Amino acid sequence: MTLFVLLIFAGFCPIAAAAELDPFPDVTFKVFSDFISNNFSSKISLATVLTVLFTLTSNPDLLNLHCRQQNPQNANERNQSVTGWMNALSRALSNHLEDDTKRLFHHSERQSYQTDERITNAMGIKLDALSKLLGLNPFQNGKFQQKLKPVDESIIHPIYVICPEALECETELCSGHYLNQNTRDRDIPQVTLIKGGKSFKNTHVLSGKCSKCDGIYYADHESAYQSPANKTRNKYYLNSAKYLKVGQNLWVDRIFSAAVVNGVYSFHASTSAFAEFWNETFQTKVSRRQVWHTFVQETIRKVAQASNTALELKDGLPIDEVTKHAFQQLGENGIVRSAENHFCSECTHDYKQTADRITGDDPAAVVGIDENQSVPGLTGPDADLATRDAAQARYDAENSMLIDQTSASTGAAPVKMVVLDGIVMGPTVCFYILILH
């Protein structure tokens, strides 16, 4: 009972993934560069340097434990310059760097440190010194100030620009003509990009244009005239697009769009339910319409890719018209070509005309609700019809054995169908029965 109450209470408490952050270490490049030159090999790569830097900034809890052990606060404690915590971090870093670990030492140092234990201790000393240089130390002059918190990396996150994937014009008439940047500086849209679960605001969106054929290239589609004489543009949906436009000011990567589709099919979630889940978990808010738009954009590309084709529609269609025309092109009158000659236990079952078990219970009884108590008879204007239907179902079930045997003897084809009721959490759905609605 207590657990049930807690579950109900938790349903009214949105859980957001937010935490206090420490600013990124404020150290000049010269000071940092001098430390790297003095402590590491001159042949160390930029990738290794950045790996060491982010290893320290990403482990504040370990550094808290390490620094606490270096600063005795009680009479029975002693200072340890190299702690087991820092040695554990050194071993993890060494396992990741593998042969590049030797770049953390000068040539003369490598001759002195022969055993793994001595190498680990030496690495620990270097990492400890670098952490102090970066200010990743909760103690000052032996006195505790405050625990280190996760480091805010928003100040150093990369700047993404959404632009066409095509390198040059891909029409046959242009023979690979280069693309001009098609957006004037003052008109460049600045949108929110959801990428890998993180959101990046003020992301610039660029388009390219071929000066020879006037074809326009975007990150998620291409737009070109049907013919030189016809000025009506067609829109070509790119199956390989990295980003999808799902709103006026919202773009998403294919990880997010795949998560939407997987959520709908694996959890039978509605677009409203997925939007609610996302908004209560992440800081970037999405609407039900944007989730639906994402679902449509992703599924039409999945179906088109499975059919080894690209969806081509008239440019400027609203999303409802897109689904309608996409089904006309890709649906093939309800036949999914990628599912031909495919049979698996998840999507293929023997034909069964009636249910395995139909009881003689009153049609008013509801399984799980009556709690094995007496259920009153069904009343109302259509009660007699429901009773008659239940009696007919029982009669059909009693006489269905002969029908099933006849179907089996004639080699009736198996049925390929999955019914989703939107409520029951069932097994995952076979990809090949993905049908574009």
* Number of beta strands: 15
Q: What is the number of independent domains?
A: 3
Arrangement of strands in the largest sheet: 4-7-8-9-10-13
Order of helices and strands: HHHHHHHEEEEEEEEEEEEHHHEHEHHE
Number of helices: 13
Rg is 32 Å
User: In whole angstroms, how far apart are the ends?
Assistant: 42 Å
Helix and strand content put the structural class at: alpha+beta
How much is the average pLDDT? 81
Residues in β-strands, percent:
5-15%
Question: Can you describe this structure in just a few lines?
Answer:
With 437 residues, the chain is an alpha+beta fold. It has helices at 2-11, 29-39, 46-57, 60-70, 84-97, 107-112, 116-133, 254-266, 271-281, 288-306, 319-330, 383-398, 400-409; strands at residues 139-140, 143-144, 161-162, 180-181, 190-195, 198-205, 208-209, 216-217, 221-225, 233-237, 243-247, 250-253, 312-314, 348-349, 415-416.
Q: How would you describe this structure to a colleague?
A:
The protein folds into three domains: 29-154, no CATH class; 157-337, no CATH class; 351-413, no CATH class. It has 437 residues and is α+β, with helices and mostly antiparallel strands. It has helices spanning 2-11, 29-39, 46-57, 60-70, 84-97, 107-112, 116-133, 254-266, 271-281, 288-306, 319-330, 383-398, 400-409; strands at 139-140, 143-144, 161-162, 180-181, 190-195, 198-205, 208-209, 216-217, 221-225, 233-237, 243-247, 250-253, 312-314, 348-349, 415-416. It has a six-stranded antiparallel beta sheet with strand order 4-7-8-9-10-13, with helices on one face. Strands 3-6-5-12-11 form a five-stranded mixed beta sheet.
